[in-house]
From TrEMBL:
Superkingdom per UniProt: Bacteria
Protein name: Thioredoxin family protein
SUPFAM superfamilies for the chain: Thioredoxin-like
Chain segments annotated as transmembrane: none
Organism of derivation: Catonella massiliensis
Domain Thioredoxin: 17-102
Pfam families: Thioredoxin (PF00085)
């Protein structure tokens, strides 16, 4: 199974979100059970969507980045298309909705 890139700095996050055509970031905590489940689902989805860069932002090490992105809790997902925010979900949300939206962005760019 493809691993998610662990984002360790704000600069690394900015670089990936601006340089990748499609990027999806999970902001989470290692202590959060829903975050762990979402991480596994994103990894599995990414296997069939290798054109999407997927990153994991551990909140414990990236508090200022989370604040900058207005992430107030875990889990949260931000997705970007061409460096512009396309999807923002936080709290209780459906990953299937996120995945279907990403699929639409991907098919529109093909």
């Amino acid at each position: 199974m493809q691993e998610m890139k662990i984002i360790q700095t704000s600069q690394e996050y900015i670089t990936f979100k601006e340089q990748e055509k499609f990027s999806l970031f999970l902001f989470g905590s290692e202590k959060c059970i829903p975050c762990k489940a979402l991480k596994e689902k994103i990894r599995a989805w990414n296997e069939s969507h290798p054109q999407v860069f997927c990153g994991y932002v551990p909140l414990e090490e990236n508090i200022s980045l989370a604040a900058q992105e207005n992430i107030l809790g875990a889990p949260a997902v931000l997705a970007f298309v061409g460096g512009k925010e396309a999807i923002r979900k936080a709290g209780y949300f459906s990953l299937e909705e996120v995945f279907s939206s990403m699929d639409r962005y991907i098919s529109c760019s093909a």
